[in-house]
Amino acid sequence: MRRTVAIACLALQATLTAPLTHAATDTANLQVKLVITETCDIHTAATTAVDFGTQARASGPVTVTATGSVTVNCSPNTSYSIGLNGGSNAPAVPTPGQRKMKGSLGAFVPYDLYQDASTTAFWGNAAGSVVSGSGSGGNQTYQVYGKLTNVNFAADTYVDTVVATVTY
Fold this sequence. Notes:
- The chain has 168 residues and is mainly beta.
- 10% of the residues lie in helices and 29% in strands.
- The protein has one domain (40-167): Fimbrial-type adhesion domain (Immunoglobulin-like).
- The protein has one helix at 2-17; strands spanning 40-41, 64-74, 79-84, 100-103, 108-110, 112-114, 131-134, 139-148, 158-159, 164-167.
- It starts with a helix and ends with a strand.
- InterPro entries: Spore_coat_component, Spore_coat_U/FanG.
- Residues 27-165 form the Spore coat protein U/FanG domain.
């Protein structure tokens, strides 16, 4: 009996260790792919309004300035430009002197936006009037300098909405 069991065990071991044979094989290619793009974001960080505050009506020339900001976040070393449109009451591609805040009574107060505190570099959205930069991978904040030179208008609240666009 022991001999029968030993022979059966040897037969089973031979069956389990015998090479498997296949009739045929087939192959297929599996592609592995990654696309990396540059990216810029101008809407995640809130803008800061250019708020000229409360001004007393004056008949003579005045200069009132205010500062706001826009923030972009672009991939490292991504070249970009930031443009500001003409707002709700001016041409889409403004030139100096065209932006206007509108009051609830229908009057307009002209103003301009600039890239610099000395208010000499107009900020628009046409070539030569945009702010350019290179991404750092983190937030980069740019000051927007506003200037108006006339407050001889009816008492009212005057507003405008300017769209900032990052192009990369």
